[in-house]
Design a protein that fits this description.
The protein has a domain of 32 residues. The N and C termini lie far apart (70 Å). The longest helix is centred in the C-terminal third of the chain and has 45 residues. α1 crosses α2. The protein is mostly helical and 81 residues long. The chain is rod-shaped, with a radius of gyration of 25 Å.
Length: 81
């Protein structure tokens, strides 16, 4: 998505090699350097969001697994009649 002229502007200092890499990537992707930076930032923020939710889901599954292990241990340690 190309930035609109009314979007806030942000000055940014980049090392020359990073600026060149962004310019090349923008050319390959047929977009402006600004649009390239926006696309990459959006992709990275989406990835971080997915990672956050995956981490939460894994933690929930770990808790369920521990609960099930405890239940199994209770059953195995129960006195037999």
């Amino acid at each position: 998505m190309a930035p609109k002229q009314t979007d806030p502007q942000f000055k940014l200092r980049l090392p020359p090699d990073l600026k060149q890499a962004l310019e090349e990537a923008a050319m390959v992707n047929n977009r402006s350097v600004s649009a390239e930076i926006i696309a990459r930032l959006q992709d990275s923020l989406i990835a971080v969001g997915k990672e956050f939710w995956l981490d939460r889901r894994i933690a929930a599954i770990d808790r369920q697994l521990e609960e099930q292990r405890a239940q199994i241990n209770d059953l195995l340690n129960r006195p037999r009649d």
